[in-house]
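S.,

Sequence below, as promised.
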Amino acid sequence: MKVKSTYICRECGYQTPKWMGKCPSCGSWNSLDETIVKEEKKTGAISKATTPSRQISKLNEIKTDTEVRYKTGLSELDRVLGSGLVKGSLVLVGGDPGIGKSTLLLQICQNLAESKTILYVSGEESERQIKLRADRLGVTTENLYLISETDVVSAIECIHQIKPQIVIIDSIQTMNCEEVASASGSVPQVREATNAFMRIAKQEDVSMFIVGHVTKDGALAGPRVLEHMVDCVLYFEGDKQSNFRILRAVKNRFGSTNEIGVFEMAGKGLIEVKNPSAALLEGRNINKSGNCVVCTMEGSRGVLAEIQALVTPTGFGNPRRMSAGVDFNRTVLMIAVLEKRAKIGLSNYDVYVNVAGGLKIEETAADLGICVAIATGKKDLCVPDDMIFIGEVGLGGELRSVSQMEKRLAEAAKLGFTQAICPKQSLKGVKPPEGFRAIGVKDIKEALSYLK
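The prediction came back faster than expected:
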C-alpha cells in the first residue's frame, strides 16, 4: 500500500497532485485542500457481474399510499421541512458557530421522544455537557440516548443496537472513517461519512439530522457534493448579536424550497415567532426619512420588512455604497436607475441600505422599496406610516409585475396598513382587502410622485 499526497477540490471533487489557486474543473478559487490518501494495487478487471444485494422493483409495484411525517413540536420547523420530518430522510442543518443549531435539535427531542426513540451522536461535546444543556432547555425524556463518538463505524453499530427512529449527528465535520487516510473534516472524510449515514437512513428508514459547519464566506464546510447527497438542506441565519434567528430551506425533496421559520433566542432556548412581520416591524422608525416597508414572499409566507436608507454627502472622491440584508449589486443598480430615470443626483452622496431585524431579502419585489428608501433619504421626505411598497424595477425605470399579490396585500392589511404602491399590471383580477387601497403605477417616477 502506497501513501501519497494529493489535492482535492471541495466544490467538485477534482484531484490533482499539485496545488493550484484555481480549480481547472469548476473554476473555484482557493478550493483545493491537501489530503493524504492510500493507493492500493489494482487486482484486475472483474470477470463477471456480482449478484445484486438489493431486490429490484418495478415502478408500478412501489406503494406510496401513506407518507409518514413526524411532528417536531415546533410549527416553524415543521413549516420549513414541509409539514413535518419525513421518515427515512436525511436533513442537513448548517449555520455559523453559536447560532443555535445544536440547541434547536436538542429542543425538538422533547416532543419527538414521546413516541420515538432518538439517538444523539455528538463528536464535539461529552455526554455530561449535553445533559447540562438539556436541563437548561427542559429536555427530560427517557427515550433520548446520548453517545460521544467520532468514529463512523462505532456510531453505526450504536444505531443497529438501539434501533432508533431518529438520529442526530453533531457534527459531520468531526466524524472519522478509519479506511480514509485523511484528517477529520477533510473532503474525503466528510464525503464517506455522509455516504455511510445516508445508506443507513435509506435502508433502515431512520430519519437523520446532520449538523454541518459553514466557512467564513457562508458556504457549508466540506465538499459541495454533501448538499446533493442529502434530502433537505436548512440554513440557520441571523446576527449572533440579535435575538432573531431565521431557518431557511434551500433544498427540500419533500416540500417547498426557500421557506423560512423565525425563532427568537431566549435563556431557555429558541422560541417560535408566530408572526414574523410584527416582530420585524417592532420599534420601526415613524416619521423619519429614508424608511419604508416592503412585503416579500418567503416560500408560501408573506413577510413585511423595513428597509432603511441613509444618504449623506461624501467626504471622499468616490462615494461609498454599502448594503446589509439586500444584494449589493442590486442596490447599485437601483441607485443608477434613480439617477438616470428619476433624475435624483447621487454621484456625490454616500448611500447605506439596511434591512432591519437581520432578514436577508433576495426577492426582486423589494426593488421599489429600495428605491423609495434611497429617494426619500436624499430628499428628506417621510413615507406615510400606513403605506407599503411592492414591485420589481427594471433598468428603464418601469415597474414589473410580481406574483401572489393577494397574499402580500392580505399580510399588509393584517398588520394595519391601508395602502400599497405596486405595479399596475399586478392588480389585474386582484381584489384588495376591505378598506385597503392598492395604487397601481407604471414606473418609478410615478411611484415617487405619491410621496410629495
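The longest helix spans residues 187-204.

Coffee later?
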